[in-house]
Amino acid sequence: MLKKLLINNYAIIDELEIDFSGNLNILTGETGAGKSIIMGALGLILGQRAETGSLRNRERKCVVEGVFSNDNDGVAELLREADLDPEEAEVVVRREIQPSGKSRAFVNDTPVNLSQLQQVTNMLVDLHQQFDTLELGESDFQREVLDALGGNAAAIKAYQRLYTDAQAARRRFEALREQKTQFDKEFDYHQFQFSELDEAGFRPDELEESETELKLLNNAEGIKTALAKGYYELAESEEPVTRQLKALYASLQQYAELHPLLPELVKRIESAYIELQDIADEVDRVHGDINFDPATIEQLNDRLSLGYKLLKKHGVKTTNELLAIRDALNEKLQAVLNIDEAIQKAEAEYKHLLSEAEAAAEKISAARKKVVAPLQEKVDAMLRQVGMPNARIRVDIKKVGLNATGFDEVEFLFDANRSNNFNPLRKVASGGELSRLMLCIKSLVAQSIDLPTLIFDEIDTGISGEAAKQVGIIMKDLAGTRQVICITHQPQIAGRADAHFFVYKNTKADTVTTGVRMLSTDERIVAIAQMMSGEKPSAAALENAREMVTAD
């Protein structure tokens, strides 16, 4: 329930505060007094678009604040999920527009984005404005009416999860089929490339090692000659180096104790002798290992030629990169072999989810169809009540492809004159007929959903007399279980108010501002009489107004 509305620096409103009752609140006043401006300000805290042009004083910010009672379980849960002080007794919603144009929104003094703001306020308030009757002709709204009356909210939420999962499964299935098509196109090419690399049979680092080995074999004779010469000089010449070192060692060894430096020199000569002797043996061994082998050279040249060709073909530089390409090709080939199984699994998952979604949609459709006859009966009765005795409504449900709301296409059909010629509502109903029809439908829907506050901005356009009286009765009945706020020009509706607010213009120092005050019983009688007969109401008009006010 909207307990209080505070407006500061908005349009022609300087500062305004309205304390609403929990039942039927009526706002009346002359055209242009600011009634719709109040609704515009209210729209800001409901998440509607903010514009800097709405600032009265461009030097300071505009602030609109609504104080709601926190007695809606759904709102409390939403606040809890968003960490917005769900335990508070009141929900305070505030919207600020800076002179720069920047807009900020708050719930319980916590900044929120517009989406969060709308989520909260949509559960608190239903705002119906003068031209919202156009949505009555829209299929989505008509379907939502059936769902509200059928109590389908939880079922639709569960269905939408299934539908979303089914669509995701369908996309996976189709992606796999597309992948298989692509695989099939590339399979032969990949198979050829893999076979070529696999048959080459390269081991890791083979080409690099082969290059080194080939250089060695191509220079084998020169290397052997150098090694043979080295071994000869070290160990087999007429005066080999090793023999000379051994002789030097022997000649000095006998005098080692006679000079302090000789032992160290003798030791070093001995080490050099041992090292050179070892080098000579190693040179001889290496010399024996190296052999010029034309067959091996030819084999290495063939392998390298094949390797260079494949390196160039695949645009890489090393053996290991070639092997990585071979392994990647093998994975693609294995994927082709495995994808049929993946496709079957994905298709089975999609069909299972689709079947569950269709079953859920069938139940929702049955629930919708179940409320059609009662809806038609009740709306027809209410249309008679609001001065349309010959008008009738029919609901047509057609099965269409599965979508986010099921598989029903809903169309409200209308016959204004008992002609049995029902046509789509959007094509045949007049503005006044739509207004009354919308009120009838919303009054029925309000009984099925937990919506604390209903706001009607001039929904009574195009009606008068007995029809207006009956609209007032319907609104009064609605206000018995929830808060109703209504802007009206109809005295028959104003007479039903629990709280009657008069909106007026106040001129001071050539500045026009909007004011609102709650009327006493006597003031209500005068205001309603003026609505019937002008600024100076007749005695009859005053008496008629008194009867309207005291009729309840």
TrEMBL record:
Q: Which residues form the RecF/RecN/SMC N-terminal domain?
A: 1-507
Q: Determine the domain of life of the protein's source.
A: Bacteria
Keywords attached to this Swiss-Prot or TrEMBL record, sorted alphabetically, are: ATP-binding, Coiled coil, DNA damage, DNA repair, Nucleotide-binding
Q: Which GO terms describe its molecular function?
A: ATP binding
List the record's Gene Ontology CC terms alphabetically.
bacterial nucleoid
Q: Does the keyword Ribosomal protein apply?
A: no
Q: Which InterPro entries match?
A: DNA_recomb/repair_RecN, P-loop_NTPase, RecF/RecN/SMC_N
Its BP terms in the Gene Ontology are: DNA recombination; DNA repair; SOS response
Which intervals of the chain form a coiled coil? Answer: 159-186, 329-370
- On whether DNA damage is a keyword of this UniProt record, the answer is yes
Instruction: Describe the task this protein carries out.
Output: May be involved in recombinational repair of damaged DNA.
Family affiliation: Belongs to the RecN family.
Q: What is this protein called?
A: DNA repair protein RecN
* Upper lineage: Bacteria, Pseudomonadati, Bacteroidota, Chitinophagia, Chitinophagales
